[in-house]
Write a structure and sequence with these properties.
- It is a single chain.
- Helix 6 crosses helix 8 and helix 7 crosses helix 8.
- The strands form two sheets. Strands 1, 2, 3, 4, 5 and 6 form a six-stranded antiparallel β-sheet that branches. Strands 7-9-8 form a three-stranded antiparallel β-sheet.
- The chain is an alpha+beta fold.
- Strand 8 and strand 9 form a beta hairpin.
- The radius of gyration is 18 Å and the shape is globular.
- The protein starts with 11 loop residues before the first helix and ends in an 8-residue tail after the last helix.
- About 45% of the residues lie in helices and about 25% in strands.
């Protein structure tokens, strides 16, 4: 990876790093494709490698005997596996798997830890990133407690849209019901309402975003705070990055 340039990366954390800190990470990073459904981090298993996402979407799920529910959604703003490693743990109780295929820059945990110990700016940025994950998790709890299925679905589609390469999101209704922790019939009815109102279009195995502004109105307070906090903490901006 010696020829990797700072200006070439798409990961927002890497882009926010000072040039000298980015250059220090380059020899340790390697490109890896992440195919659909690949498990990047298994629950309750020692984390050997973490991943700066360049493209694609990673779901963080709680897998219990009663079922699987999504508790986090990650894309090119993310370092998958960051929180346990930066907080001096070696594992997560959650599964991290690929929801939409893409690519990453992978780095082994000993290399990341060595550089964060040597480089205060890198350590500070990644600790701020952990805070943004906590905010996203809190907003998910807020949205689940205060919003009905259409509101929660609108928020989830917006979060996927933020991390997608196009307006079309590859997803099935069964998968959406699992991720939201809602019966499939509830997701079907909510999605039909969004289609009827012209907010999205449904195709076999995918959903196309038609009217993002109205989706934002429907999602309400459940969407936006985590995105604004990321822009403030990581990029020094009062506004989230435009798609």
């Amino acid at each position: 990876m010696a020829n990797l340039q700072h200006s070439d990366v798409r990961n927002r954390l890497l882009r926010a790093l000072p040039s000298e800190d980015f250059a220090a990470l380059v020899p340790a990073m390697r490109p890896e494709a992440i195919p659909l459904r690949r498990v990047l981090i298994s629950a309750n298993t020692r984390i050997a490698t973490v991943y700066f996402v360049e493209a694609g979407i990673v779901s963080v799920t709680s897998d219990a005997p009663s079922g699987r529910v999504e508790v986090g959604l990650l894309g090119r703003e993310a370092l998958v596996g960051a929180a346990p490693i930066l907080l001096d743990d070696d594992r997560s109780p959650y599964t991290h798997f690929v929801q939409a295929d893409g690519r990453t820059l992978a780095i082994d945990v000993p290399d990341l830890r060595a550089e964060t110990e040597r480089r205060p700016a890198l350590r500070r940025l990644l600790h701020r990133y952990v805070q943004t994950q906590l905010v996203q998790a809190a907003q998910t709890a807020f949205a689940n407690a205060r919003g009905g299925t259409p509101t929660r679905l609108a928020r989830w589609l917006l979060m996927c849209h933020d991390r997608s390469e196009s307006d079309e999101i590859t997803v099935t209704q069964e998968f959406m019901s699992l991720m939201l922790g809602v019966e499939r019939l509830g997701v079907t009815m909510a999605l039909r309402a969004l289609v009827k109102d012209g907010l999205v279009a449904k195709r076999r195995g995918s959903v196309q975003i038609i009217d993002r502004e109205r989706l934002l109105d429907l999602a309400g307070d459940g969407y936006g705070l985590a995105e604004t906090e990321y822009a403030r903490l990581i990029e020094g901006s009062d506004y989230p990055e435009a798609r």
